[in-house]
Amino acid sequence: MGLSYIAKEKFFDKVNHDRLMRKVAEKVEDKTVLLLIRRFLQAGVMIHGVVRDSEEGTPQGGPLSPLLSNIVLDELDKELEKRGHKFVRYADDCNIYVRTRKAGERVKASVTNFIEETLKLKVNQEKSAVDRPWKRKFLGFSFTFHVNPKVRIAPQSLKRVKQKIRAITSRKSPMAIDDRIEELNQYLMGWLGYFALADTPSVFKSLDMWIRRRLRMCLWKQWKLPRTKVKRLIALGVPKAKAFEWGNSRKGYWRISNSPVLDRTLNNRFFESLQLKSLAERYDSLRST
Question: What ranges in 42-176 are assigned the alpha helix state H?
Answer without folding.
Answer: 65-83, 101-117, 155-168
